[in-house]
Amino acid sequence: MKLSTKGRYAVTAMMHLAIHDRHGPVTLAEISQCQGISLSYLEQLFAKLRKHGLVEGVRGPGGGYRLAKTPNQVTVANIISAVDERLDATRCCGDENCQGGRRCLTHQLWTDLSRQIFTFLEGITLAQFVERPAVYDMVHRQHARRRERIQPIEIPATM
User: How many domains is the chain built from?
Assistant: First the structure.
């Protein structure tokens, strides 16, 4: 099983919203810049996330996106499912036609693995993930890099 960039980027973008949840809406341009995800790709992902009730748009000055639910109500599995990612380790996508139209010898093993992965991701909320020390450190590094890029250039006074 391989999780595509669609699922990875959706989780990353939602984490960004969860981290900045207290500070108001976040623009897709900010997420794009901070997380290195294409703006047009984010627009596609957020259309799906909005459709599934995970994010909501805020119009006007200071607008952007925010979580539609509290971070402790959104699981990683919710996000991945919302962007049409399949958490399926079988070759047949669960259709049981893996070997010449019939179920293969190891089909149940891969089905059980898929359930375990889904259960694992269903047990992790955005709130729990944000609280991890490694995430906290990464946020501070990103903010420091961002401040370095936007520091005003000092122009010496002319005499």
Answer: 1
Q: Is residue 159 part of a domain?
A: no
In a domain, 111, yes or no: no
Distance (Å, rounded) from C-alpha 83 to C-alpha 48? Answer: 6
Distance, CA of 47 to CA of 121 (rounded, Å): 22
**Domain containing 21 — which CATH number?**
1.10.10.10
- The whole domain housing 72 covers 5-86+125-136
Provide the whole-model pTM: 0.80
For each successive 10 residues of the chain (159 residues), what is the average pLDDT? 83 93 90 92 96 94 92 96 84 79 87 92 93 78 59 42
118 DSSP 8-state letter: H
Alpha helices in the chain (DSSP H): 5-19, 28-35, 39-51, 76-82, 107-122, 126-130, 133-150
Dump pLDDT digits (tens) for 104-126: 888 899 999 989 999 999 999 99
